[in-house]
Amino acid sequence: MKLPDATTLLLERNDDVLHITLNRPESRNAMNLIMLEELRALLAAAGKDRSLRAIVLRGAGGHFCAGGDIKDMATARRDDQAGQARINRSFGRLLEEAAAQPQVLISVLEGAVLGGGLGLASVSDIGICLANCRFGLPETSLGVIPAQIAPFVVRRIGLTHTRRLALTAARFDGIEALHLGLVHFSEPDVPALEQRLASSIGQVLRCAPQANRRTKALLLASSEQPLEDVLDQAADLFAEAVTGKEAAEGTLAFVQKRKPGWAP
Question: What does DSSP say about strands 17-22 and 54-59: parallel, antiparallel, or unpaired?
């Protein structure tokens, strides 16, 4: 599938893995409206590609994302409140869509991971950071609020920690991010970061593609729907999976002591 063109993103596809790099290094990859819309369009197109199994999201120039573009925020003040709300809500839709992305979403975090950047990190399936990253929710120190970001951070690290971080605009490093559960791995240097990324991709590719898609959908539903509804849905998904081609190949490969066809 052909992916849409982008002026603020760098794209590289390696077989079943799509690498997306936020590319506004002059602003530490702060997200403007163009980047927001380009990223939403790209994720939507990628979600329809059933041959794509993982998406790696990172930033250019030694930073992940310093949050929203302050210049865009200043321009938005000229709009009425309804216009400002529409702009703000569009970022929340990006986070919703990224959280529900059918592929495994891996965030690779360096340098600044602030505001909206922290929001993006919060919706990834696998988070890998450098220990010297600088995380934070600085919105209240600018006189605004982390409106679309806060619910996703609460889901990631819990209400108690989010309250402290949002109400103090405190900065913290990758080691604390690991302790909070915001990321899964904190690495001391770039070579270790890249090695962890390669290892994580390898682990993802050992899993059956459609089984991963169904499992991710089930896990997301489990946090939003009543338990009985989730279990009913899970039974249907299991029946669909166990009678499908992947289960047949997976069990045969196990018996024959070989890798299944989808594994590298």
Answer: parallel
By CB atoms closer than 10 A (0-12, 13-18, 19+), residue 112 is buried
Q: How many residues does the chain have?
A: 264
Provide the whole-model pTM. 0.93
* b/e burial code for range 144-168 (CB count within 10 A of at least 16 → b): eebebbbbbbbebbeeebbeebbee
Domain 9-205 CATH (choose: 3.40.50.150, 3.90.226.10, 2.40.128.50, 3.40.1390.30): 3.90.226.10
Dist CA 18 CA 1 (whole Å): 12
Structure tokens at 67: 């949050």
Report the percent of the chain where pLDDT is more than 70. Answer: 97
Cα dihedral 219/225/226/227 (nearest 10): -10
Does position 73 have pLDDT exceeding 80, yes or no?
no
Residue 228: CB partners within 8 Å, gap ≥ 6? none
Place of tokens 């069990």: 251
pLDDT confidence of residue 77: 57
- Helix 150-157 vs helix 159-168: angle between axes, to the nearest 10 degrees? 130
Position 146 confidence tier, pLDDT thresholds 50, 70, 90: very high
Q: In degrees rounded to 5, what are phi and psi of residue 54? A: -150, 150
